[in-house]
Amino acid sequence: MQIPSMSIQVLPPEVVDQIAAGEVVERPAHLVKELVENSIDAGSTRVHVEFFDGGRIVKVIDNGKGMAPEDLPKALERFATSKISKTDDLWRLRTFGFRGEALASIAAVSKLTLTSRREGDEQAHQLVSEYGRKKEIDKVGGSLGTTILIENLFDNTPARLKFLKSDAAENTAIKTTLRAMALSHYDVEFRIQENGKLVSFWPACKNRKDRVEQILEIKPLFVGEASRDNVRAYAVFADPHNVAKTAKNIWLFAQNRWIQDRSLQAAVNEAYRNLLMHGEYPIAVVWVETDPDCVDVNIHPTKSQVKFQEPSLAFRAVAAALRGTLEQAPWLAEDQRPRGPQPLSDVSPQDYSSTKGLPNFAETVTPKENLAFQDSSLQVTQFQKKDFSFPTSTVNQPKVDYQTLAASAEARESLRPSQASESPEPEAPRGYWSSLEVLGQANLTYIVTQGRDKIVFVDQHAAHERVVFEKLMTAWKGGKVDVQDFLFPLAVDMSPEKVEALLGIAKEIERLGVHIESLGPGTVGVKAAPLMIKEAILSSVLDKMATEIVDQGGSYSLERVVGDICATMACHSVVRAGQALGLEQMKSLLRDMDLFPLSSFCPHGRPVSVEYPFYKLEKDFGRIV
User: Domain of 183: which CATH number?
Assistant: First the structure.
């Protein structure tokens, strides 16, 4: 079939406006966002929002600067704005609106009533527009600021109207948008009415943390900050005990704009690694700020996305802002804080010597059941420890089962009773866990302890798993792991972009035990790797890490894999549920828990302990009402 030729035509203004409306005002929540941002740009300190019928009727009242009568018609014209005047202004934005499209687009698909009064004006002025057709300006009564009333939204575009969701769903989207607007502007008062009923009132706050606690209704929350070059991240977040079932409680802001960004969301999840169970998500609000010319906010009609000049810096700043505070476990009471954990640089494989009850790394272990408590027979082998020194060849050198060796050794050491022959050492200050009085063992699984006002049940497997995991990870991060070199470099093929990304941080990943070199524009050669990582998975690990470096930066992928390996090692080698423990073994485990601030969680995010206050027992027994 031959398609008839058509001449090119210039679209009429009303069609152009409706096309723009489809991009800018996809649903009522987007309309509300645009109107509130205009109010903020006008210097408002109070914003009142009312909406009815799923957002088909919206009123926004502010106490901003207001507009001159002659500016009212201009405000409804496309590409009319007071925010920018030339191209360079796009890279020095200090306002949220700048396109000059929102009001024109909204007016094209609704009846819009614009009322505004400036300071010093005797009366307010009002302009009514019905689907883009403006009427005469009238003088009316009105307070200082601007009021915009939107009615009959999408009545002239039935096709778009039928794509709206239920009123309840649209109302929820509007309230989510307003919550985000309030989070980003802690110094502005917000009053929200839904179908004539006041649903939220958020007075202005002194800082971001107070506003987050006010809106999310969660206390206590914690603060973290970090910078990577010219990118700064500020985070307010809940502890790992307080989690959500979806990622909807991860709020992200760039240049104080509410955005959707998978990379930054991944950075938040990365910060909580080994603290949350599968299906749990953090509760966090994160602000990312950088120089205006290093971020592009003009890449999406709704301004819900931005593009950073250096995305990896943003990822690393966000992850560091949260992780730096999480590792201090600020939710613990002062008496629950660790009493001097080992510095990373002080832990090395040499520390695991036979003088401390552990086999030397020049020896191998024949594992038995209950590795945590049984001594293993030691057999001398030809294997030689290579702490970042590479002999000419490793041919015919038998490999050590590092996972069984290190984990079983750690397991026995962490629960080894003190020897009577050892010279007594001065007693260190007791931490929270070791200060608990051990009463016994329940169901051969839970250590039963009591404190001053409560009974505490400690999951022996989860607790020991965290202790061993932390010790293994500390050795790894301190660059004190054993590595093996390859007779011939292991060739890993990937895109030139990924090769360049890996080589760019070669020194950093060398600290993790992986030594690489370039074998060509599309090939990386691995000269040496840690014994913990099997050769078979090196290719996939490096390719995944290169992908994340390109998108996010840093060596998070490799550390995540190492963390998973250490968690698996710990899980399969420590004391199990159903295993009897002696009193000294239980006390020893509690003392080890005091060394690490995150002892409240196993490496898989499960809680290590459960508390029962004495007042609850007394209430259950009828001693108190």
Answer: 3.30.565.10
